[in-house]
């Protein structure tokens, strides 16, 4: 199954002047009334299969967020309705964008507690093919976690950190932290390993691969290790990093990355599938999925 995940890595990649909206922050109206019956059906198909998979696989906070928000199978959510609930809980809102937006626009939204979500939905023949983040990835995958106060703070801090990393030329290192937490993070909760990353939560095949498949490594999250680790943009991850609790992310939101960037700069980088002597390995992957042939 071909997968195209570059876009998830690059929420902020400039989409080109051809689609540049009129507003400086790239927001557009969601245009909810313009969704077709087929669009809502695609949403339902995606929603239903994830709803069956996620109990026992998504972390408690994700499932709670799903219950708390006006997200249901029958229709693509209205961003205004989502924002009404989110604002009261964590001060976040969901704003519509046409797709990818430039880095600084993306970070500025996050720093101001606005989550930019693609307003379009993938075609019915592309259920597992994502060229850029659509409304299912962005809303189903990301928004439930924004109900959680720790993730809410963490993502705002990431936006602020992103603006700073741009100035420092360290965006690649920071992006890996986002990638291995917000997009592809796993959590060790009392009753077992769970997912909280949006890239997993919104993907039928990666939900089971990340948790159940013997192929990938599952390694305890370590900030500097992650900052030095490359990731897959064209396939499932070779390594998933596991946090012990969301307090770990809150710590990340509070620390000064400046000295870390200095420390990491010039150090060797690690390939996506590397396992290191200092790693706390929860599962040593067979690597089978990524072996050629
Ligand atoms: Fe995402």
Automatic annotation (TrEMBL):
Catalytic activity: (6R)-L-erythro-5,6,7,8-tetrahydrobiopterin + L-phenylalanine + O2 = (4aS,6R)-4a-hydroxy-L-erythro-5,6,7,8-tetrahydrobiopterin + L-tyrosine
Keywords: Iron, Metal-binding, Monooxygenase, Oxidoreductase, Phenylalanine catabolism
Names of the cofactor(s): Fe(2+)
Binding site for Fe cation: 137, 142, 183
GO biological process: L-phenylalanine catabolic process
Record-linked InterPro entries: ArAA_hydroxylase, ArAA_hydroxylase_Fe/CU_BS, ArAA_hydroxylase_sf, Aro-AA_hydroxylase_C_sf, Aromatic-AA_hydroxylase_C, Phe-4-hydroxylase_mono
Domain of life where this protein originates: Bacteria
PROSITE patterns: BH4_AAA_HYDROXYL_1, BH4_AAA_HYDROXYL_2
Catalytic activity, EC: 1.14.16.1
Enzyme class: oxidoreductase
Cross-referenced Gene3D superfamilies: Aromatic amino acid hydroxylase (1.10.800.10)
Protein's pathway: Amino-acid degradation; L-phenylalanine degradation; acetoacetate and fumarate from L-phenylalanine: step 1/6
GO terms assigned for molecular function: iron ion binding; phenylalanine 4-monooxygenase activity
Family: Belongs to the biopterin-dependent aromatic amino acid hydroxylase family.
Name of the protein in its database record: Phenylalanine-4-hydroxylase
Organism field: Piscinibacter gummiphilus
């Amino acid at each position: 199954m071909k997968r195209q995940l570059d876009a998830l890595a690059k929420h902020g990649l400039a989409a080109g002047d051809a689609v540049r909206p009129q507003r400086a922050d790239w927001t557009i109206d969601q245009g909810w009334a313009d969704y077709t019956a087929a669009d809502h059906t695609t949403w339902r198909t995606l929603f239903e299969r994830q709803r069956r998979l996620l109990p026992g696989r998504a972390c408690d906070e994700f499932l709670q967020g799903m219950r708390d928000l006006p997200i249901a199978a029958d229709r693509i959510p209205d961003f205004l309705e989502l924002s009404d609930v989110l604002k009261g809980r964590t001060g976040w809102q969901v704003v519509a964008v046409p797709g990818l937006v430039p880095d600084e626009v993306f970070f500025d939204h996050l720093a101001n507690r606005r989550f930019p979500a693609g307003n379009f939905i993938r075609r019915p023949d592309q259920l597992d093919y994502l060229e850029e983040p659509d409304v299912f990835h962005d809303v189903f995958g990301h928004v439930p976690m924004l109900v959680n106060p720790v993730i809410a703070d963490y993502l705002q801090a990431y936006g602020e950190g992103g603006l700073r990393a741009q100035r420092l030329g360290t965006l690649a290192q920071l992006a890996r932290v986002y990638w291995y937490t917000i997009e592809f993070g796993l959590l060790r909760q009392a009753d077992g390993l769970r997912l909280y990353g949006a890239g997993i939560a919104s993907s039928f095949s990666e939900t089971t691969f990340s948790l159940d498949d013997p192929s990938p490594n599952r390694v305890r999250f370590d900030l500097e290790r992650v900052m030095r680790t490359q990731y897959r943009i064209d396939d499932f991850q070779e390594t998933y990093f596991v946090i012990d609790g969301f307090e770990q992310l809150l710590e990340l939101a509070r620390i000064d990355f400046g000295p870390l960037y200095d420390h990491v700069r010039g150090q060797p980088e690690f390939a996506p599938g590397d396992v290191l002597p200092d790693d706390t390995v929860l599962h040593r992957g067979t690597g089978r999925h990524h072996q050629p042939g």
